[in-house]
Amino acid sequence: MKKFIFSLAAVALMLLSCNQQQPEVEFGLSESQIEASNEGGTYSVTVTSAASWFVTIDSGNDWVGISPDKGEGPADVVTITTQPGKGYAIAYITFTSADMSAMLTVVRRGEGAGDGTIQLSQTKLEAPAIGGQFEVEVTSEVKWMVDKDVSWLNVTPGVGKGNGKLSIDVAVTDNFAATTGKITVYEVGKKESGVVLEVERSGIAVAQFSVSETKKVIFAPGNLQYNAVQNTFRFAEHQYDYLGKSNEYIDQYYNGWIDLFGWGTSGYDDKYPYLCSEESEDYFYGSDIAGTDYDWGQYNAIEHEAYAGTEKGFWRTPTKDEVEYLMKQKIDNFEAGGVRVTDMNNESFLIILPDGLDLSNELTIAPNTLKDYTKEQLLYVQVQGAVILPLMSGFRSGTTFSKAEGGAYWTSTLKDESSQRAYALHPGLGAIVEVPVYDGFSVRLVHDVE
User: Fold this and answer.
1) Last residue of a domain, one of 51, 80, 108
2) pLDDT tens, position by position, 275-307
3) Would residue 64 count as lying in a domain?
4) Same domain, yes or no, for 94 and 188?
5) Which among 108, 143, 177 is the end of a domain?
């Protein structure tokens, strides 16, 4: 027993002796990381050391300075100075004392978003309706990838490593309201922490058209459409859209959209948009529908994302005199003409230019001609405010649709009280025609400019 007690005492004495031979050396920094301002600045760090120390900074980091760069301890205050800069940057400063070291990281996040791994020279891009090409700088030290959420944005390259540039191609719009897309640049495998570039593209210009010596109007952004089951009017998504044979399903139970209407079928006084009778007596006639509830826009509040909050009476059908004045002015000045769009199945359209718009020679239009366009050229004209009317929107007789003879667009003017015929614009002829009130034709509404 005594021998065992002696052994424990000996071990304790040995441990005490070792501790006395290896005193603890204290070395460390008051901060491990500094978040540097883009505007530059100075920052203080305390070095605690029982012996002399010195500093090394990774090469290529001349935007960071330190003073003093060496010391004796036990507590030395050093000043870190950073230069201003917009891009992401990171510097590693190593403090060394004997065989011990401590790391200080200095990070300048840049003007972008994200966690600092990837930075963009801007996080918002405003593009005109006509689109265009833009460049955005990427600052990074990692491998990254690019994602987008809309088809009208094209971004190259799709992948990269380190610093680089994104080439962004914004397509011309076909939307009257402004549209927004997002481009995300993220470290491979870390999509959730990516940097987002928001791209806002302007909508189509809302242009003015003279319809008399003293009156101007704007046109609705597309042909009028109606769903009987929903009892809802709307405008076509694009000016160049028409529904064609879908109009053969016209009746009060059809849960789809139609866009060919008998004259004055706003829904008022049982003159429903889905009327397909071939008897004039089933339709309103006897006077013009201008200013009455038989006019689609006067009786219905037809909303659109570019015209939110519109009420009854905001839209109306143009009169025969207004359409004749408009077409004469445009035809006389080569500001109206037909185009055939080669990459849209050779569909044909009447283009009517707004007041004061001059086209380049390549896009010149003229009456009684059918010029070949591409869809991009059609959209180029549209974003500057041109009205586009499908030439082959067709017409409906009862429940039979015909495209071969082309279509027409109703005016609000009846020929006379007894003829049971009203006036419409035939876009293929660029002229006013007389048609029975029971035929189904297109409707493009207007709004008076105050």
Assistant:
1) 108
2) 999 999 999 999 999 999 999 999 999 988 888
3) yes
4) no
5) 108
> Residue 27 and residue 25: Cα distance in Å, rounded?
7
Co-location of 33 and 143 in the same domain: no
Tokens of 91: 């510097």
Same domain, 67 and 140: no
Token pair listed for 173: 């719009």
**pLDDT higher than 80, residue 13:** no
Q: What are the tens digits of pLDDT across the range 314-341?
A: 999 999 999 999 999 999 999 999 999 9
Contacts of 316 (CB under 8 A, 6+ apart): 290, 291, 295, 297, 298, 412, 445, 446, 447, 448
Q: Report the alpha-carbon angle 389-395-401, nearest 5.
A: 130
Q: Is 8 within a domain?
A: no
- Given a cut of 90, whether residue 368 has pLDDT beyond it is no
Contact 338, 391 (CB under 8 A): yes
Both 195 and 214 in one domain: the answer is: no
- Domain-located, residue 4: no
DSSP helix/strand/coil, 64: strand
Tell me the sheet residues that pair with 93.
Answer: 57, 104
Enclosing H/E stretch for 174: none
**pLDDT tens per residue across span 121-170:** 999 999 999 999 999 999 998 889 999 999 999 999 999 989 999 999 99
Task: Tell me whether residue 18 is in a domain.
Answer: no
What is the domain range of residue 155? 118-201
Q: Are residues 241 and 301 in the same domain?
A: yes
Instruction: Go through the chain and tell me how many residues it has.
Output: 450
* Tens digit of each residue's pLDDT (9 = 90 or more) over 95-109: 999 888 898 988 876
The whole-chain average pLDDT of the chain stands at: 89
- Between the CA of residue 424 and those of 389, 410, 421, 441, what are the distances in Å? 13, 4, 10, 8
Closest to 144 (Cα-Cα) out of 114, 189, 182: 189
What's the whole-model pTM score?
0.72
Q: Which residues contact 412 (CB under 8 A, 6 or more apart)?
A: 288, 289, 290, 295, 316, 317, 318, 319, 320
Q: Is 346 helix (H, G, I), strand (E, B) or coil?
A: coil
Helices (H), 22-124: none
> Are 172 and 245 contained in the same domain?
no
Q: DSSP state, 72?
A: -
